[in-house]
């Protein structure tokens, strides 16, 4: 499966050849060097370990220094399963050239962290009545359990809690344009995360 690592740079407007204006997310993707090649003989499965970015020197210890060997230490490391991993070599560079305009891709990122939120914002509850004598139940989640039976709150009950900051996969985003000389790829639609957030772009698993 083709895959590349990148950083979300923000959103912009792109004018197509027919004059239509579409919203796109600009991602700086690659270059991603191959840090390690895993095979069935050595590791039990076929995969490539890709690197992206430059790691700070104070975060690179001796084991990592030996792991990177001939390439500079990368800030991010991710694996991608491949059926033909043995054909790649350590040090090979993956760029946005492997993707074409019009192709569908999946983007994996981390959603924006919104902190601790109530049930109204987190789960879109309507809240309590605004009249009939209530004074402090307007944004209450209501009952979260029962009376004498079962006398407990069920696992998974929708309640207040931490919102966002979770792994999100957006499927079937279309590639609107690429700029290989600047390592940029532009996708139609929105991508999870804030600007400068780390993302993974892979070929769509369920393209439609």
Please sum up the structure shown.
By secondary structure, the protein is mainly beta. The protein has helices spanning 40-43, 62-68, 119-123, and strands spanning 3-15, 21-29, 32-38, 47-52, 76-81, 93-94, 104-110, 115-117, 161-163, 167-179, 184-188, 198-203.
Q: How would you describe the overall organization of this protein?
A:
With 208 residues, the protein is mainly β. 8% of the residues lie in helices and 38% in strands. The chain has helices spanning 40-43, 62-68, 119-123; strands at residues 3-15, 21-29, 32-38, 47-52, 76-81, 93-94, 104-110, 115-117, 161-163, 167-179, 184-188, 198-203. The strands form three sheets. Strands 1-2-11-10-7-12 form a six-stranded antiparallel β-barrel. Strands 5-4-3-6 form a four-stranded antiparallel sheet. It has a two-stranded antiparallel ribbon with strand order 8-9. Strand 1 and strand 2 (21-29) form a beta hairpin. The longest helix has 7 residues, at 62-68. It is extended. The protein starts with a strand and ends in a 5-residue tail after the last strand. The model has no long low-confidence stretch (mean pLDDT 89).
